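Researcher: I'd like a candidate sequence for this fold, 474 residues long. If you have to choose between options at a position, lean toward the conservative one.
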């Protein structure tokens, strides 16, 4: 009898634990974590490459609702959807949500980049980057950007009958980054840098299994080579600043090296400079190149919109002496062109989505997001919501004539709230300068179909092959 009683008493804690686990599991969002490590990663990546990723996400939303669990890139994840979800993610959930990207992005870019930092570290590093990327600072670089765009068009577009737009816009934005952000002029080192950079970004959304011949492995090795190059550049610029042979405002690296706190201590560590330079490279290269490419694609398909953009840009060109560079004031006149860019970003956002991490158990929409889980949000889901943007499949730049009329946390190609991308203004400048010279110097028509896949950025088939011809001001 005593043995039976003892067995019963020992079994009670087990029963209570099982009941607590069942109760907790019912409160975790619906869905499945799938196969360990792999989860739903391969399904999402296949859908992205087939240009059906939004459909893949929408099917999950239809099946499970606006919040569901899955496993992506080796970690348990909660997918959240809608305006309230975007606000929840970008406002930080009262410090319950921390910045965190996938393991692959973290390992390739480094764990001290802005996307991985939270709290005081995030504010400190973001403040350092914003001091260079804010409009007041960028005004002085418009002429340099203008010079890079004109040189690029003369080398790669002029005299050609056909071009592949995406590879060329990637080369253009990379050259702008090298020149303005790193002070790295054209030559062998810049070309080598580009090869390593392209290899690095290929594996940023990949399953983090580090074995030879995988995308992840190739990206890690390319990232290490880039870091070696950056160490040399940073060392050289540090010496130049110490010898007063360079200005702290001549490029981003010099700017970051020259920043000190009230005690005279350098504001950012050397590792933070390396990791955030790689982040800025990716953000400034991919977002703008994809945006410029899709504007060109759109203008080829929308003659009326092309005509309106051309008229605005020709008026600016005619108001200037021939050969004179664009100015900040010229860019401020390109209002219609920027609404076209914004509508392009709404329909074809370069960034598919992003990740955060729950720092504590979070109560959200009647469920618990467990501590340590990833939170995944998808850019296009609110962009293509007909309750937010009527007739979302229709291209209408006038939606953005008054940006205040767009509901907050619904248009999020650059994030939202205090988490908006600090490079937003930089992307705007290089996009407008590039489009100005493209539409005033060339006309084009598509030679390829309109299909594109995501890898993870949108990639048009054949790199968007177009037939081009020179044009003069009408």
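Model: Candidate sequence:
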């Amino acid at each position: 009898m005593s043995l039976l009683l003892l067995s019963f008493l020992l079994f009670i804690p087990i029963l209570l634990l099982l009941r607590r686990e069942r109760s907790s599991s019912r409160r975790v969002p619906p869905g499945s974590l799938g196969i360990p490590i792999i989860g739903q990663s391969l399904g999402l990546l296949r859908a992205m490459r087939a240009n059906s990723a939004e459909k893949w996400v929408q099917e999950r939303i239809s099946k499970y609702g606006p919040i569901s669990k899955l496993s992506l890139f080796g970690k348990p994840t909660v997918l959240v959807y809608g305006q309230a979800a975007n606000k929840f993610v970008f406002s930080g959930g009262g410090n319950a949500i921390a910045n965190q990207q996938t393991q692959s992005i973290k390992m390739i870019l480094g764990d001290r980049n802005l996307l991985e930092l939270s709290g005081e570290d995030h504010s400190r590093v973001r403040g350092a980057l914003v001091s260079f990327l804010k409009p007041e600072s960028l005004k002085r670089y418009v002429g340099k950007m203008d010079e890079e765009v004109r040189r690029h068009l003369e080398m790669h577009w002029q005299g050609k009958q056909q071009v592949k737009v995406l590879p060329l816009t990637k080369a253009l934005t990379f050259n702008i980054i090298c020149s303005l952000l790193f002070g790295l002029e054209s030559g062998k080192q810049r070309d080598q840098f580009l090869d390593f950079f392209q290899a690095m970004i290929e594996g940023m959304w990949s399953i983090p299994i580090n074995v030879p011949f995988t995308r992840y492995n190739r990206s890690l090795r390319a990232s290490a080579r880039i870091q070696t190059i950056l160490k040399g550049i940073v060392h050289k610029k540090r010496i130049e600043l110490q010898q007063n042979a360079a200005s702290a405002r001549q490029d981003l690296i010099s700017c970051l090296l020259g920043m000190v706190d009230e005690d005279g201590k350098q504001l950012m560590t050397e590792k933070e400079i390396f990791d955030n330079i790689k982040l800025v490279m990716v953000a400034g290269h991919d977002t703008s190149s994809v945006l410029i490419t899709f504007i060109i694609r759109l203008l080829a398909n929308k003659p009326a919109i092309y005509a309106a953009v051309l008229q605005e840009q020709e008026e600016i060109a005619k108001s200037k002496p021939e050969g004179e560079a664009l100015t900040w004031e010229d860019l401020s006149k390109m209002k219609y062109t920027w609404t076209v860019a914004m509508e392009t970003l709404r329909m074809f956002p370069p960034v598919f989505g992003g990740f955060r991490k729950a720092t504590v158990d979070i109560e959200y929409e009647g469920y618990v997001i467990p501590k340590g889980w990833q939170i995944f949000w998808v850019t296009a889901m609110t962009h293509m919501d007909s309750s937010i943007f009527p007739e979302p499949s229709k291209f209408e730049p006038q939606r953005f004539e008054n940006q205040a009329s767009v509901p907050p946390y619904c248009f999020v190609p650059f994030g939202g709230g205090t988490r908006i991308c600090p490079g937003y203004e930089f992307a705007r400048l290089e996009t407008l300068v590039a489009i100005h010279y493209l539409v005033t110097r060339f006309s084009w028509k598509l030679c390829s179909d309109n299909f594109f896949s995501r890898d993870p950025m949108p990639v048009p088939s054949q790199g968007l092959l177009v037939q081009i011809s020179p044009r003069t001001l009408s």
